[in-house]
Amino acid sequence: MIFSLAPMEGITGSVFRRVHAECFGALDRYYTPFLAPPQVGSSFGGKAYKEVDPERNQGLDVVPQLLTNDADKFVWATQVLADMGYAEVNLNLGCPSGTVVAKGRGAGFLRNLGELEGFLQEVCDRSRLPISVKTRVGVLEDAEYEKILELYCRFPLQELIVHPRVQKDRYQGVPRLELYGETLRRAPFPVAYNGDIFGTDDMAALLEAYPETRHVMLGRGILSNPALARMLNGGQAATAAELKHFHDKLFCAYEEEIGGNAVFRMKEWWSYAKYSFADPQVVHRAVRKARKVGEYEEAVERVFQTQGLSAEPRFGGF
Ligand SMILES: Cc1cc2nc3c(=O)[nH]c(=O)nc-3n(C[C@H](O)[C@H](O)[C@H](O)COP(=O)(O)O)c2cc1C
Where is the DUS-like FMN-binding domain positioned along the sequence (predicted)? Predict the structure, then answer.
């Protein structure tokens, strides 16, 4: 089974990927949070460059993800990325954010299948790298997926990663597993599953329904339980010492990256990591108020000294 880390803007960047791999072992594959392609003729700059800088991704199998509806920029970005040594690029057709959708990107591209077809035709013909797609199953309702899947099946995709929710769902409701199953049945290329795999029971249910599953992308589950991939491979749950070590390394690495106070960054991580503990609400209250580094470090010490880990850590909602 291939386990990959989901692209999560603001969270699963190069720092998180490296520290997580050092502490819990590398996953089989990582997808960068979405990147806007550079202008034709230019390279990635600033924050985007940090994401794809080969030095920061050493030893990991990383697939850069692009968010765009501009075929020329997409094709150019594949050239830049191929020159940097990348072997695949991923197209984001799932981002549900209002501003992205309004511009016809991410899940918003699924509203206009004529344009999407033209885009896919061009990028599949002209790109230097094989293209995988991460998709939702529609904008408003499941019925849209019939045409969307039929469209994908006409292109030589490297892989199709299905998050079987529509844009309108955001992250609410239950993923439509049967639409993933339909994709497995019909797609002429490899298919991956993504959505709500938070524990070994979820994985067992997925495999029972679809034993031919070969690649599962993990997002919030791994943020809430950093040992999730290890457990899905038959290994141990995280110990408190491992979790503390991971926390300390992540905090240090973010401080180094930011060049200052990384408390805000860490609070975002805690909004998921609190689910590693038996009482997530107590943990949430303990770290919520800290602003200065000293206050934060004290709060974290207290959490680890007083709070036990959950017997079955799993993401429990935003
Ligand atoms: C905060 C946040 C940021 C995300 N950023 C991205 C992104 O940059 N690109 C993308 O394709 N999906 C993004 N996603 C969606 C995740 O990759 C994934 O599809 C979603 O969380 C469902 O998987 P899960 O149930 O395993 O978390 C994001 C989700 C969240 C919650």
Answer: 5-237
Q: Parse the chain into domains and list their residue ranges.
A: 2-232, 240-306
3-state secondary structure of 65: strand
CA distance 91 to 207: 26
CB 93 within 8 A of CB 55: no
Q: Is 219 annotated as a binding residue?
A: yes
Please name which of 170, 219, 169 lies closest in space to residue 9, comparing C-alpha atoms.
219
By most ligand atoms within 8 Å of CB, the mutation choice from 3, 5, 9, 165 for ligand 1 is: 9
Class of domain 2-232: alpha beta
Ligand 1 atom with least separation from CA of 67: 9
pLDDT of 318 higher than 90: no
- Say if ligand 1 is within 6 A of residue 3 CB: no
* Cβ pair 10, 46 in contact under 8 A: no
Instruction: Quote the CA–CA distance of 226 and 274 in Å, as a whole number.
Output: 11
Chain segment 15-50, per-residue pLDDT in tens: 999 999 999 999 999 999 999 999 999 999 999 999
